[in-house]
Amino acid sequence: MERRVTLWSLLLPLVSLLSVASDARCEAEIPVPIERPLAVAFDRLSPAQRELLEDLLDKARREPMNGLRRGQLGMAYETNGYPRAALTSYRQAEKLDGQEPRWPYFQALLLAGQGEMQTALDALDRSIRLDTTYVSARMWRGTWLIELGLVGLAADAFTEAKSLGLGWAATAGRARVLLHQDRFDEAIAILEPLSQESPFPSVFQLLGRAYRESGRLDEARVSLARGKSAQRIGWHDDWQEAKRAYEVGVTPRLQQAQRLILLSKTEQALPILEALIEAKPNDERVINTLSNAYVLMGRDDKAFAVLRNALERLPVHYRTHLNVAGVYESRGDWKLALQHIDAAIRLNPTVSLPYEKKGLLLQRQRRLVEALDAFELALNRNASDPHLFARAGDIEAILRRWLDAIERYRDSIRVDPSYTLGHIKLGLSLARTGQFEAARDALSVAAALDTHERDVQEALAFVSGLEHKQNSK
User: Fold this and answer.
1) 189-239 pLDDT, tens digit each
2) Which of 10, 112, 256, 291 has the highest local Cβ count within 10 Å?
3) Contact yes or no for 88/38 (Cβ under 8 A)
4) How many beta carbons lie within 10 A of that of residue 15, not counting itself?
């Protein structure tokens, strides 16, 4: 009996193994369900967009186990206005290709855009586990952790981003953490040198907040004025940039060309713009961007030819007339320049720019009263531009109507407290009326804005000289 029990106990593991093997064979024989690529209605798309998406959808259907095909479809969906379909496609891509960090990363960004921060972080963490060196993921992690109130973990993320080689953006992220921890003096100690090394609006916004919370209100006002555009902390994201290959149509390609021009890569922008002008010869954005690109490349004749060709095609956009006017003005042909500015006004009498251009041209011709009238018409259409108030003030100053000039310059800095030249011109006009202390106050604000140091110094010297001259009479 004892021997039979022992024999049975020896057979049990073998029976168990055979059972497992049998189960494994059964599971292998059951097909794993594969999600079909998601199809959406393409009715609202342009022919070019529809062609791209239909092609990618067809490739994803023909290669149902290919994660890259599914991810490419997701990127095309996202860049052409189908975020939900993109999210589904990225999830499918991750199931098919679990070693590619981009698929959970793209999910994370879409989820965060929907306000699903914790789910976004979960997806982002999956991406980070697959690629621990991608710095943009660390920055998003820190940003979203702050929004969830987990500032300690956010600090770690920004520190990791810094260690991976990111510059001012990671440092600014660490300063954000310090602000949320009410450690304002430490934030200021980081942000003051950063504002000198990397003078981005978002840095000045953070510094202004730190000054304000520390009770340094005058410094806060100046810093917040310098950061008035309130741009978020930004950094380059190669993975996101790669999606632009799936953008179709004039606007995405035009934006790509404009980005290249801003990066001083005009020679790379030209082929894009030249192809666009063939496809869209009446698109004023393409016309004027291509013309400006030729100017930057020193090919002025080509630039003017583009504009002349545009004038021969209807409809003509008012900006095209303004650009033609600029060419004639640079040649000294003010009569023809004025004719094209007036043509721009007739085409679009509701915008301020043509009136501003007319005022500047008339000012150059010393037709000051007419110039002031043009600036007034511009202000009637746009009272939020500090430069327009200053231009009107310049005419008043030329006419030596100092009190009127002072009021115009005050209006300019009411509209935009960070407008340094407005403070400088105000200071000079105040000095002209003998208000030397007020003049220095205006110039001290201009100095604090730290954008026109030489102009401020020259203005202060002028005020001192004027005051000495008046006192010695």
Assistant:
1) 999 999 888 888 889 889 999 999 999 888 888 888 777 655 678 888 889
2) 291
3) yes
4) 10
Q: Around Cβ 236, how many Cβ atoms within 10 Å?
A: 10
Please give the helix or strand (H or E) that residue 457 lies within, else none. Answer: helix 453-471
- Angle at which helices 436-449 and 453-471 cross, to 10°: 170
| Residue 415: Cβ-neighbour burial (10 angstroms; 0-12, 13-18, 19+) | middle
Which residues fall within 8 angstroms of residue 136, CB to CB, at 6 or more apart? 235, 236, 237, 238, 239, 240
Please state the φ and ψ torsions of residue 370, each to the nearest 5 degrees: -65, -40
The answer to whether the CB of 136 falls within 8 A of the CB of 237 is: yes
Confirm whether pTM is higher than 0.70.
no
**Tokens (6 digits) for 330:** 């640079």
Chain centroid to Cα 133, Å, comes to: 25
Kindly state the DSSP code that residue 350 receives in the 8-state scheme.
Answer: T
Question: What is the Cα 29 distance to its own chain's centre?
Answer: 53
| DSSP state letter for 400 | T
Q: Which has the higher per-residue pLDDT, 23 or 468?
A: 468
Name the burial class of residue 14, with classes exposed (0-12), middle (13-18) and buried (19+) by CB atoms within 10 angstroms of its CB. exposed
What radius of gyration, in Å, describes the C-alpha atoms of the chain? Answer: 32
Question: Which range among 24-33, 364-373, 450-459 shows the weakest confidence by mean pLDDT?
Answer: 24-33
Question: To 10 degrees, what angle do helices 420-432 and 436-449 make?
Answer: 170
User: Cα(378)–Cα(397) distance, rounded to whole angstroms?
Assistant: 19
pLDDT value for 229: 57
Q: Which residue has the tokens 């496809």?
A: 279
- Phi-psi region for residue 37, left (φ > 0), alpha (ψ -120 to 50) or beta? beta
| Under 8 Å between Cβ of 289 and 281 | no
158 touches 173 (CB < 8 A): yes
Contact 357, 322 (CB under 8 A): yes
Is 337 within 8 Å of 358 (Cβ atoms)? no
For position 313, what pLDDT does the model report?
Answer: 77
